[in-house]
Structures are given as C-alpha cells and as structure tokens.
C-alpha cells in the first residue's frame, strides 16, 4: 500500500464526479459536507447520540418513522413532513437525543457516503468542528487517505474544499513523515486553507452555498460550522450506520 | 443572457467531468491546457501559422499527412511516427511554418475542444502567454464566460486552474463592471492565482504534471509556458480549425 516514496498518499476528491478516478482500494476516506450534513453529524455525536442512519429517500425516512425511529431531514430548507426536525447542527444538540439512534435524511451527504462505501475502505465523517480528531483517527489507520468533498449537486464547493485543505495541512504537519501528497487538488486545497485560516468564517462569505443558505434563512449555522475543533468525536461508518469510534 | 444582477457570469470548469453541469448556451468558452496543447497553439499563431487542425487519433494524423499536411503530435513524450515534430511550443516557432496549416495531435486538448464545441458557443484558446489578449476578446463578445480546464486525464490540474484564476482576475478587474462571479471554482482559482502571481513559475514546481514532464525530459518548456502576455494572438475555433481572430 506504500507509494513509491515509502509514504502514504493524501488525495482530495473535489467533486463526486471525480470519484471514479481515484485508487481507493483499502483507503481511509474522510467524507465532508460542511453545510450541513457532516457538521450536523459531528454535533450529534458530540451530544452522544448512539448512532445515525443516513438515508436519501423520503420513503426510507417514513419507513423508519413507522418503526419508531427518530427521524430528521429537510428539502430546500423545509423540514420534511415525516421528520421531527431539520438538518441544522443545533437540532442535534438536544439532551433527549443522547443514547438514541437518529435517521437523518440528507441528499449530497448520503449520496457521498453511498459512493465511498466499499468492503476495503474505512469511512470517517469530517467537519471543521472535529478536524483534528478525525485526522488523528485517519492517520492511526496507516493507509492512504482521501478527503471526499460532497459538494453541492456535484459541483465544486468552496467550504468543503477548504475543509479538505485544513485536513491535508494537519496531516502533513502531524503525520510524522508518514504521509505525502502529489495530488494537485490536495495542494490547491491546502493553499486555499493557508490563505484563509486566520479567519475562515470571513473567507467563506463569498461561497456560493453561503448565499443559498442565506436565501433560505439557514445561515445561522455559519459561525458554528466554521469553528475548528470544538468537538472530539470520530464518527465512522459501520455497516449502514454511523457510530462514534471513540464511544 | 444577463444574470439576475444584470452582469455576465464568469465560471470555471475545473475538469472535463464537470462540463455537463454548466449552462453553456451561447457562452464564450476559453479552453486551456497549459502543459502543453494551448501554450503551443498560442506559440504557433504568434509565429503566424495560418491555422491548426486539432485531432486526437493517430489515424487522423496519418490521413492528413497523406494529403500533404504538416503533422505534429506525440504520445507519452515521444514524437508520433507520422509526425514531423512533437507538441513543445518551441517546435511551433520555426519560420517555415508561417502561413501554413498544421495538424496537431493532442489528447486532453483536442478532447476538450470537442466537448465545448456547440453551435451557439464561441471558443477561444487560452494560455498564460496570451492571457490579456484572449480575455479582452472574450469580454468584447458580451456573453457569459466559462474557462474550461482540460486537465490531465480528467483530473484537476494545478497549472490549468492557475490560468483560470489569472483569467478570472483579469476579467473582473478590466470588465468595466460587466462581469461578476458566483462560482466557487472561479473564486478559488482567482485566490490561488492571487497567492502565486508574484512568481507563478516557482508556484508550479509542486504541480503533479510538472513532475510527469520532468520524468519525460519535457520540462524545458516551464519557463516559457508560465510567462504572462508574451503573445498577442487570439486563437479561436472556426469550424474544425483554429485560426487567429486578429489575423
């Protein structure tokens, strides 16, 4: 699994469309969808939910609800009729959710998780809020690392790319020389992070999705979502569920 | 064709894979493949070739050669058997090519040109060496502008993205307020250019393709390719051929 330089490669997949180009056999994949799926998942595990079941179809959410599960989800900023609450990270901070399984309906985030799932892969959930924790876990696996940006409708997304850069930088600086990159999108992401890290919240003002959120009145999450390392949980995919590998 | 803000949008397509996501009806598309197709095309028109016919298949090159055309092209750094010379920009600077048509065999570059060609589009050829000239032409058309990065085997490429950023910055600064961007890849590209513009040649040292070129002994073109505005030609697609719109 070692590359020719005797180090594990770090790569960044900047859009789901690019995923088929990657050598992902046995890799660690960190999936990110900053606004809002993965930031909300991290918030949920920080609040000690037991697990999250990510689903993409409304029919799936309804089926889980009928079995008695707590269901969250929204479309275009509106909470789904079958859901108790929407996908804001703030919704996942309620104490009553501790120890519970939540079925979370997301579009880009769930699609991303389905794409990267493979018998040989380890899949983690990354956000600015758990950057160090998820990267430390990824490095411990001693495998190639791919940061997978869920994007928005397959488009390149500034906030996801910025997180990828924050992860690349952290891994290169803390990987004890075990990791390297020859991936242009990893290099670019890290440079964009370098440029913005003194104030990522201000930098993200120009992101397209930030404007979409504002239009839908969902931009109350920006300050929270752009904070580094407020959470220490390490959500990972285990079968069909996401659990905290540190719990 | 005006966007909601009453300005023409500028977007960056960072990989051919993303092309289907773009609204390209009636747009100006600037295709770039810095190492080496578009830099060589610009060098050829600066040397006053009459036209370039871009082809992707070796069989096409052979057919043109049999008709008496001058044929250039290479695969993996080796000049094609049917070709007189390879794809280095230096090969296109010979005085004997002036006034002639050259059939140029490229892979990523030709594929890109075929993808973007559409009855409603105007297609120009961009490189660092003709940045201002091609951008001025693009702005004169008063249409939405898309910078199309040919990349390398559909991958994100640092040098093409950097050119895209250089073009976005120039258009926003010189477009007299007629242009704007809400495209995250355009914003990111422009920021990377901002970061590197004091010495793009040094910045590109870390690009993956730069290492590929070095391995093949083709990196003698780096200094030349990274220079801004050494050429004033404006190569554009006209039917199956590329011609200089200023000639």
Task: Give the key terms.
putative 2-phosphosulfolactate phosphatase, four-stranded mixed beta sheet, five-stranded parallel beta sheet, about 35% helix, homodimer, about 250 residues, alpha/beta, globular
Description of the structure:
- The structure is a homodimer of 247-residue chains.
- By secondary structure, chain A is α/β, with parallel strands linked by helices.
- The first copy, chain A, has a single domain (8-244), classed as ComB-like (putative 2-phosphosulfolactate phosphatase).
- The first copy, chain A, has helices at residues 37-46, 58-66, 108-116, 131-140, 158-174, 184-196, 200-203, 208-215, 222-225, and strands at 8-13, 28-32, 51-55, 70-75, 78-79, 101-105, 122-126, 145-149, 179-180, 235-238, 241-244.
- In chain A, the strands form three sheets. Chain A has a five-stranded parallel beta sheet, with helices on both faces.
- In chain A, helix 5 crosses helix 6.
- The model of chain A has no long low-confidence stretch (mean pLDDT 93).
- The A-B interface holds A 14-15, 17-18, 21, 153-158, 161, 182-185, 187-188, 191-192, 194-195, 206-209, 211 and B 14-15, 17-18, 21, 153-158, 161, 182-185, 187-188, 191-192, 194-195, 206-209, 211.
Please provide a brief summary of the model:
2 copies of one chain form a homodimer. The first copy, chain A, is an alpha/beta fold and 247 residues long. Chain A contains 9 helices and 11 strands.
Question: Which consecutive residue ranges of chain A, at least 5 long each, have pLDDT under 50?
Answer: none
CATH T-level topology of chain A: putative 2-phosphosulfolactate phosphatase
So what's the overall shape of chain A? globular
State the separation between the terminal residues of chain A, measured CA to CA: 29 Å
Q: What is the assigned CATH homologous superfamily of chain A?
A: ComB-like
Number of strands of chain A: 11
Helical content of chain A, roughly?
25-40%
